[in-house]
């Protein structure tokens, strides 16, 4: 193909109105009942109902579906629908119009019951038995961890869980945290597997539903030019950052004081990102193949060896200033709290591909910028032939060699960016760092699907690829348990809100030149 030739998209790849392809090309064809336990909670109102509304409006749901809000407060169908309408107007990424809103609400109903009361589940079972609700059922447990066992037990005892791989089918979505340590994670898995088959359990990690996360595998394994250099020969280090500017808004102080950055972010979100960017090519794209490769990474993952000048961990806790409370001053947080709101870790993968390559994880609250990204930093050439400059406009200064870096930006400004060196237009032979930019906003004019839209659609389809398997959960906790023990014995370093964390973290990130800036 000549360079000037246009790449033509087949007509079958276009949507019906002749424009770009829709972000949602999958339709659920089976009738289904979506039961939300804890339907009046924050997650249901901000994420689940808006996601289902978007799926409905974009034609991804069958005409025969039902959404049942299950909670103990004194609502009825009318008042529940009104509350959900208010939530949609506030939180839906899709424009809310009265006709579609009315049509969507016709599928909503409210079932009042105590989630810990077996009689409540018997009443719900009666609705399925009398044909009021479609027989296929997806139970979403949007509830606190202490209620999960009673909820799953109630479903089983009431006969609401059908046999695995049968019709009608049953699937159950479980929110994190998946335990607090290895022991509790194993206990949770045993309990779930006493009542459900593994194929019926969908442990949800919303990070895996983000578009750039899903693009990691296709970028690595669909492009010959990148996969051969994803190894210890060419990669100097990998950096994974999940930084937030918020603190303890929405009354999260009590939860976070008992959780901390390691349990909240590292053991699930960051470890999953790490697995996707370092795993071996799977033998297929089905859930089993991808999960098996992630498990190999987790079995080989461990905390790097610390030295006097290069520690492997740093934990921090944000302080306060004239406009922001310190963590220990937040509502429902202990004044003596040692909970880490920042964590920097240096990890290694003890396998043939990645042996000796440091993998840096960094996450925290009240940091300088909201961003989640993976940076794969390559080694510099063995001989520096060129002068490197750093330029602002027409003003340039000599600078050190900047390595090639491949960046997967997950949020915000989603995209994939490659930093390379190129000659600066001038009479001198000098090079500067430039970006090769693939941003979603620059390529497609459609809004990206929200993570919950993708994950709920996958759960309704029975595709568990982006959900976490029980052995993955336990393998993650095996890695993190020893790190938790270090955190428990440590006094977190205080860092200023709006910074990149404590200065002590510089020593962990030393080899990258990736300091607190």
Describe the structure.
The protein has 517 residues and is of the alpha/beta class. The chain is built from 14 helices and 19 strands. The longest helix is centred in the C-terminal third of the chain and has 20 residues, at 470-489. The chain starts with 31 loop residues before the first strand and ends in a 9-residue tail after the last helix.
Topology record:
Layout (H helix, E strand, L loop, with lengths): L31 E6 L4 H16 L7 E7 L5 H15 L6 H8 L2 E5 L5 H12 L7 E5 L3 H13 L12 E6 L6 H14 L5 E4 L6 H11 L13 E9 L9 H5 L2 H19 L8 H14 E3 L9 E6 L23 E8 L9 E6 L6 E8 L8 E6 L2 E5 L5 E7 L3 E9 L6 E10 H4 L7 H11 L5 E2 L1 H20 L3 E3 L9 H4 L9
Parallel strand pairs: 1-2, 1-4, 2-3, 4-5, 5-6, 7-11, 9-19, 13-17
Antiparallel strand pairs: 6-18, 7-12, 8-10, 9-10, 10-11, 12-15, 13-14, 15-16, 16-17
Helix pairs in contact: 1-2, 1-12, 4-5, 5-6, 6-13, 9-10, 9-13, 10-13
Query: Number of helical runs?
Result: 14
Mean pLDDT across the residues is: 86
> How much of the residues is beta strand, in percent?
15-25%
Distance between the termini: 45 Å
The total beta strand count reads 19
Q: Into which percent range does the helicity of residues fall?
A: 25-40%
């Amino acid at each position: 193909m000549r360079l000037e030739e246009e790449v033509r998209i087949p007509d079958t790849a276009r949507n019906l109105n002749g424009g770009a392809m829709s972000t949602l090309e999958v339709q659920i064809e089976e009738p289904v009942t979506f039961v939300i336990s804890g339907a009046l909670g924050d997650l249901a109102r901000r994420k689940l109902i808006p996601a289902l509304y978007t799926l409905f409006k974009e034609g991804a749901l069958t005409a025969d579906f039902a959404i049942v809000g299950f909670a103990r407060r004194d609502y009825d169908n009318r008042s529940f629908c009104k509350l959900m309408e208010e939530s949609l107007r506030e939180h839906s990424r899709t424009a809310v119009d009265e006709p579609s809103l009315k049509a969507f609400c016709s599928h909503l109903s409210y079932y009042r019951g105590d989630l810990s009361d077996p009689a409540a589940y018997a009443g719900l079972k009666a609705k399925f038995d009398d044909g009021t609700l479609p027989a296929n059922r997806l139970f979403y447990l949007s509830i606190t961890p202490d209620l999960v066992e009673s909820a799953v037990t109630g479903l089983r005892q009431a006969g609401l869980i059908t046999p695995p791989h049968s019709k009608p089918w049953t699937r159950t979505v479980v929110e994190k945290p998946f335990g607090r340590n290895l022991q509790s994670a194993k206990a949770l898995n045993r309990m779930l597997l006493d009542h459900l088959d593994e194929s019926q359990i969908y442990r949800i990690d919303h990070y895996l539903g983000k578009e750039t996360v899903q693009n990691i595998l296709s970028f690595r394994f669909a492009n010959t030019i990148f996969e051969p250099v994803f190894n210890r020969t060419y990669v100097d280090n990998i950096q994974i950052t999940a930084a937030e500017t918020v603190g303890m808004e929405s009354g999260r102080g009590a939860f976070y004081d008992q959780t901390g950055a390691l349990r909240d972010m590292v053991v699930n979100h960051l470890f999953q990102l790490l697995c996707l960017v370092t795993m071996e090519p799977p033998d297929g794209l089905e859930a089993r193949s991808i999960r098996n490769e992630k498990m190999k990474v987790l079995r080989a993952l461990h905390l790097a060896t610390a030295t006097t000048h290069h520690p492997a961990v740093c934990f921090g806790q944000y302080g306060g200033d004239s406009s922001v409370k310190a963590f220990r001053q937040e509502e429902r947080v202990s004044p003596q709290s040692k909970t880490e709101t920042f964590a920097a870790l240096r990890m290694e993968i003890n396998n043939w591909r990645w042996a000796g390559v440091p993998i840096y994880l960094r996450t925290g609250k009240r940091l300088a910028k909201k961003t989640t990204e993976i940076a794969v930093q390559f080694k510099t050439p063995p001989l520096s032939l060129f002068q490197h400059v750093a330029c602002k406009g027409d003003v340039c200064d000599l600078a050190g060699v900047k390595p090639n870096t491949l960046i997967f930006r997950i949020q915000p400004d989603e995209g994939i960016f490659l930093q390379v060196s190129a000659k600066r237009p001038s009479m001198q032979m000098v090079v500067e760092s430039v970006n090769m930019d693939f941003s979603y906003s620059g390529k497609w004019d459609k809004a990206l699907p929200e993570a919950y839209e993708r994950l709920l659609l996958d759960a309704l389809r029975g595709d568990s690829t982006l959900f976490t398997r029980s052995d993955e959960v336990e393998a993650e906790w095996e890695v993190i348990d020893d790190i938790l023990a270090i955190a428990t014995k440590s006094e977190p370093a205080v860092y200023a809100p709006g910074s990149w964390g404590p200065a002590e973290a510089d020593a962990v990130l030393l080899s990258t030149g990736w300091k607190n800036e």
